[in-house]
Amino acid sequence: METKFDRRSFLRVTGTALSIGALYTVFPGLTRKAGAEGMARTLAELNGEAPAPFSFMQLSDTHVGFNGPPDPLGTKAFESAVATVNGLKNRPELVIVTGDLTHDADSPDEHAKRFKLFKEISSRIGGAQLKVVPGENDAGLDGGDMFREFMGPTHYSFDHRGVHFIALDNVSAGRPVVGAAQIAWMKADLARFPKTAPIIVFTHRPLFDLKPEWDWSTSDGDDVMNALAPYENVTVLYGHIHRENFHQDGTTKMYAARSLIFAFPDPATAKVKKPMPFDKAQPFKDLGIRRVNGDASGNDLQLEEVALATAEFSGTVGMDQMLKHGSADAQDE
Amino acid sequence: MKTSIINKIVGTILLAGVCEIGLVGVPSMISLTRASDNPKVIEITAKKFEFTPNQITLKKGEPVILRVTTADRVHGFMSRPLKFDTDIAVGKATDVAVTPDTVGDFTVICDHYCGTGHGGMNMKIIVVE
After folding, report:
1. b (16+ CB within 10 A) / e for A168-199
2. Which domains are delineated in chain B?
3. Handedness of CA B79, B82, B83, B85 (dihedral sign)
4. Residue A326: per-residue pLDDT
5. Which residues of chain A have pLDDT under 50?
6. At what angle do helices A180-190 and A221-228 cross, to 10 degrees?
7. Helix (H) or strand (E) holding A234
8. Between chains, do A174 and B119 touch, taking CB under 8 Å as contact?
């Protein structure tokens, strides 16, 4: 008899979506489920590690090098997010960044500086493995060469505590496409797993037609979803749209993360894709960390909003100084 | 049943007759025939980060060719509702055949990343009756 995971105990998220810096708690009750023992053994044999509770964090669209308009604070939100992660009582074991680590630059030398600055800031995260995929700003112009030089491969997979993670590249072809070769690789990569294995796919663009006229789609997203369809416990995490979104395709749940630079408006109501204006009174508005915690009783996970630190920018004088010094290298988005 | 068959036969004969008349002597029919055989060509130029013209108007049901060229680098040319998605390569024109079947305003975007202003590179196609 095949043993199935309790889906709700795999990755349970209440509400509509997860935000930037969402802290996922995985398998909060798995080890308590008597029926899960067989699957736990299977996964332990497959990837050398039995499922166990752990947490990870998703950041997205840090756009290092972008300095407004509309956001004149540059990397301040990213740096604040890193500090906030380091201050968490329950530290994540993984930090996943779903693309647009850097903001594109006309000069390769300038772009390289931005990758170096991303690495410097992200290296301040203590005790967590960093896993990244490229966005079109990172890899859309050079086929991903500079991304590979600084960050490693643009697509790959790994296992962590019984969960199989797949990093998908849907940007480095220039077009919003994963491509037949990468999809074939993913199918082969998944072939060793039972259909009930927990799988987390992380990528930059949405794998469905969220808003194609805003460039919020992946042209062969249907092919990717068809390849994932046989698997029952798939979660897709992505960025690119600079706002929260939840979408379900069959049993696959897809969550978008907010940006750490600025927000885009609601595509259901906005006529044009235009960044939300910077709010001097709330410099990190729509940027923040949402922590998702499970408890020992196996109840639903609890969402907890964790505000980014803004003390540095509080008060008119402090903000004016920041605005004055922070807008020197404004870029067109 | 018999009446229906007779109606179809008569209708076919009449239609054939009208087409024949049109081909030999009615300008409007000739015009329609040629429109579908030789669709109107509209030239569009792409460059970072704009299309020129950035708005065109088409008629519902009327086939056209959008002849797109690029002035600098490869760009994309995509509209999901109008059912086209192609790259515009450097050094040659790319013909996109379109027969709009719905009235409305449609956004065409560059979906091949072309730089920091890429997100705003689009044009509008207005389809009228």
Report:
1. bbbbbbbbbbbbeebbebbeeebeebbebbbb
2. 2-36 (no CATH), 39-128 (2.60.40.420)
3. negative
4. 43
5. 1-21, 28-35, 292-304, 314-317, 322, 325-333
6. 10
7. strand A233-238
8. no
What is the C-alpha separation between B41 and A262, in angstroms, rounded? Answer: 41
A210 neighbors A247 (Cβ within 8 angstroms): yes
Q: How far is A93 from chain B (nearest CA, A)?
A: 33
Q: How far apart are CA A145 and CA A129, in angstroms?
A: 22
The verdict on pTM exceeding 0.90 is: no
Q: With a cut of 70, which residues of chain B have pLDDT below it?
A: 1-37
With 0-12 / 13-18 / 19 or more C-beta atoms within 10 angstroms meaning exposed / middle / buried, residue A259 is buried
A7-326 CATH fold:
Purple Acid Phosphatase; chain A, domain 2 (3.60.21)
Cα dihedral sign for A120, A125, A129, A131? negative
Chain B interface test: which of A215, A216, A217 (most B C-beta within 10 Å): A215
Domain spans of chain A, in order of start = 7-326
